[in-house]
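> example.struct
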């Protein structure tokens, strides 16, 4: 059975019936569809082009929400070079308590309070708060990057996904001191105290790539390469000429934090071969000297 939060709000649900009798005959009804919305509230909707917004409360808020959505989409295209390629649906709740049941089944009871959630490549859900416009831009960035990279093997690492979203929302997040490793920033924070620094450092990493390595054009190329199903290291190498470790070293230097020491590389094959030959000669010389010494001792006349 379905419980609250299993189907994203504003999803289009399609269904049909298959009816069979004792003689084995089966009747399949025509497919029907409906828009699923949280039944606790009386929703209003408004559509402009390929954007539909859903809300409850003041009628006038719909125009404001649509206009802000259009501004956010324009900001994302300007800053990242990616644009909407599928219909977009925005669902706005009045507060966190109203929104929580709609997202908790998918994201877990123990999550910190989330200002918004990108449910899939078409739907973003958020609640009204003091900076909801920035949250809308943030979640729309997730929606558009999902549309741009959509595929079974194109999951973005945390630092890139959240870095792009925090970069487009604007403002600078504090927390780049004591940077986390690129490995931790790839999978995302697991401790509550690491959440704010992880988002700040993800934003800083993306800002570094955009400012120092080719701007939004290369970010778009990176996303397009990831969409082909390659690993993040291969995608970084193809676009920027370095992998995650190279990115981390350069970024740490850029923010003025000490770089982690890299262990010395193993000697290459010519050096290794030379060392083996020299060691062998020393061993052979030692054996010859031992044999000479033994012969000398045996030939010595008895007293």
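> example.seq
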């Amino acid at each position: 059975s379905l419980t609250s939060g299993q189907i994203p709000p504003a999803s289009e649900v399609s269904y049909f019936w298959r009816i069979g009798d004792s003689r084995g005959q089966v009747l399949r009804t025509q497919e029907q569809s409906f828009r699923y919305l949280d039944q606790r509230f009386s929703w209003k909707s408004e559509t402009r082009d390929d954007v539909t917004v859903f809300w409850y409360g003041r009628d006038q808020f719909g125009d404001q929400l649509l206009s802000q959505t259009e501004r956010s989409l324009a900001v994302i295209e300007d800053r990242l070079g990616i644009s909407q390629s599928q219909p977009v649906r925005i669902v706005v709740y009045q507060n966190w308590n109203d929104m929580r049941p709609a997202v908790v089944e998918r994201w877990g009871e123990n999550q910190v309070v989330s200002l918004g959630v990108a449910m899939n490549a078409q739907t973003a859900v958020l609640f009204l708060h003091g900076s909801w416009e920035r949250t809308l831009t943030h979640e729309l960035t997730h929606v558009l990057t999902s549309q741009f990279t959509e595929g079974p093997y194109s999951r973005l690492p945390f630092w890139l996904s959240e870095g792009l979203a925090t970069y487009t929302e604007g403002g600078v997040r504090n927390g780049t001191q004591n940077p986390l490793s690129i490995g931790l920033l790839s999978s995302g924070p697991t401790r509550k105290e690491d959440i704010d620094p992880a988002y700040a450092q993800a934003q800083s990493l993306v800002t570094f790539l955009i400012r120092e390595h080719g701007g939004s054009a290369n970010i778009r190329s990176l996303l397009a390469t990831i969409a082909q199903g390659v690993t993040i290291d291969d995608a970084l190498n193809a676009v920027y000429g370095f992998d995650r470790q190279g990115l981390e070293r350069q970024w740490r230097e850029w923010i003025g934090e000490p770089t982690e020491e890299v262990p010395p590389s193993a000697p290459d094959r010519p050096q290794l071969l030379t060392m083996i030959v020299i060691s062998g000669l020393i061993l052979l010389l030692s054996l010859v000297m031992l044999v000479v010494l033994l012969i000398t001792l045996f030939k010595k006349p008895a007293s």
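> remarks
The two ends are 105 Å apart (CA to CA).
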